[in-house]
Structure formats: structure tokens, C-alpha cells
Design goal:
This protein is α+β, with helices and mostly antiparallel strands. The protein has 2 domains: about 160 residues, Transcription factor LuxR-like, autoinducer-binding domain (Beta-Lactamase, 2-Layer Sandwich), CATH 3.30.450; about 60 residues, Winged helix-like DNA-binding domain superfamily/Winged helix DNA-binding domain (Arc Repressor Mutant, subunit A). Helices cover about 50% and strands about 10% of the residues. The protein is built from 11 helices and 5 strands, in the order ααββααβααββααααα. A 5-stranded antiparallel sheet has the order 2-1-5-4-3, with helices on both faces. Strand 4 and strand 5 form a beta hairpin.
Length: about 240
């Protein structure tokens, strides 16, 4: 908790991570992995830039990031997914258990183990940042509630300072599709499994009007099918 004040005075992202790492000097269980800002569109790895929206601590080898990015472009990272939709921090082993990860879905955890990171602790901050720690040992039962709260507080301070240092970069927000409220509404109802007649009745619109909104929404999202449009709308967080 004592590191929160000094973090607010850091002038570089690397200093933020180092100050955060120094706060862990009394334990061998955790080290700082890094911090990253989520792009507006989930899975948009072209918007994740090392040194601009992603910052790694010097304890993490550059090869890990290259290996990770190569795989993340073609496979979803379940730990990032959980962090993006959750306000609570979890260890990686807890995430694996909660999500029931098996087989290829465990790729990110297997990759971390390959690089000497047997477990970790990821803190989502404001649905905009995630701050991660790694451990050379399994963390099962190793982190008390008080320790978790302190780590989360420190991670939140780090994310806040990084946001100030990085600045309000667009991160692709300029490319975010601008759907009208009606276009979003029909796609939201479609995501619930409703067909055109049902959507029309629910919104008080004619079926042809619903089809028009649906078509325009698909065009703006670059989708050929309604299912694809719904998925893209959710990736852009146009609706929950």
C-alpha cells in the first residue's frame, strides 16, 4: 500500500512498473509482469503496441511477448477475456478452474509455464486496463484476502498513473462503427434469438423497417450475416 503515493509521482511507464515491483521485494511469490490498456474492440491486437498501450516489466523476456502475440492473433486469451468482463482480480490458476480450461484453451497458461511463469495474478482496472503479476510458483492458497486487496489497490494506482502518462489516445475509437440507436436495438434483440417479426413487435416498427436497420447495421460492421454482425457489435461493446 505504501507504493501508491510514489507511483503517482513517476514520470515514465517503466518507473511505474519498477516502483510496483519494488513493493513486492518482501516476497518471492510475485513479480510484476506488466500493464496493458484494452483496445476498444476486443481481440484487436493491432491496437496493442508495446511501449504505447502495453508495458512489460524488465523481468519479462521479450521472447515471451513475441510468442504470446503470435498466438493471441489467432486464439482467444481466456485470462484477458475474464479480466475484461470482471471487476475482481484472480490468479491464473483460479481462472483456469473457473473457466474449465482444457486442451488448446490452456495455451496462454502453457506458454507462461514455458517461460518460467507458473502462475500469476491479474487485476482488471475500470474495464480499461489490466495489471498482471507473475509467480515462479503456484499461488493456490498463497494470497490472503488482505494481500489481494493491497495488490489490487496498488495495481489501480499504477493503471491510473499510466493512463495519465500515456494520455487519452484514441486506441481505435475513431474507427468505432457509428450505428444509430435503432440499428443497435435490432441487433441487440437479434442477439437474444428474436426473429424479424418478433423484433418488429417489440420495438413497434414494421418488419421492413427492421430489415433496413439490420442491413445498415451489418454494412457498418462489415458483416455479411446477422450472427456475424451481432458478434462484431459485442466485440465493439455496443451492447453487453
Amino acid at each position: 500500500m505504501d507504493c501508491c503515493g510514489p507511483i503517482s509521482e513517476c514520470e515514465k511507464p517503466s518507473e511505474v512498473l519498477e516502483k510496483l515491483n519494488e513493493s513486492l521485494s518482501d516476497t518471492r511469490k510475485l513479480r510484476v509482469l506488466g500493464a496493458g490498456r484494452f483496445p476498444w474492440k476486443s481481440g484487436d491486437w493491432d491496437r496493442v503496441t508495446l511501449g504505447e498501450t502495453l508495458f512489460l516489466h524488465k523481468s519479462v523476456g521479450a521472447k515471451w511477448w513475441r510468442d504470446y502475440l503470435a498466438r493471441a492473433r489467432t486464439s482467444s486469451d481466456p485470462v484477458v477475456m475474464l479480466a475484461r468482463v470482471s471487476l475482481a482480480p484472480f490468479t491464473w490458476s483460479e481462472s483456469q478452474k473457473m473457466l474449465g480450461l482444457v486442451g488448446a484453451d490452456q495455451w496462454v497458461l502453457d506458454l507462461c509455464v514455458k517461460h518460467g511463469m507458473r502462475d500469476g495474478f491479474t487485476c482488471p482496472v475500470g474495464a480499461r486496463w489490466m495489471v498482471s503479476f507473475w509467480s515462479p510458483q503456484t499461488l493456490t492458497g498463497a494470497l490472503s484476502p488482505a494481500t489481494r486487496a493491497a495488490l489490487y489497490a496498488a495495481a489501480s494506482s499504477a493503471a491510473l498513473r499510466l493512463e495519465q502518462l500515456v494520455g487519452p489516445h484514441a486506441d481505435g475509437i475513431a474507427d468505432r462503427p457509428h450505428l444509430t440507436p435503432r440499428e443497435v436495438a435490432v441487433l441487440r434483440w437479434a442477439s437474444l434469438g428474436q426473429r424479424i417479426p418478433e423484433i418488429a413487435r417489440a420495438l413497434g416498427l414494421g418488419p421492413e423497417t427492421v430489415r433496413t436497420h439490420m442491413r445498415k447495421g451489418r454494412e457498418k460492421l462489415g458483416s455479411l450475416t446477422t450472427a456475424h454482425a451481432v458478434a462484431e457489435a459485442m466485440r465493439w461493446r455496443l451492447f453487453p
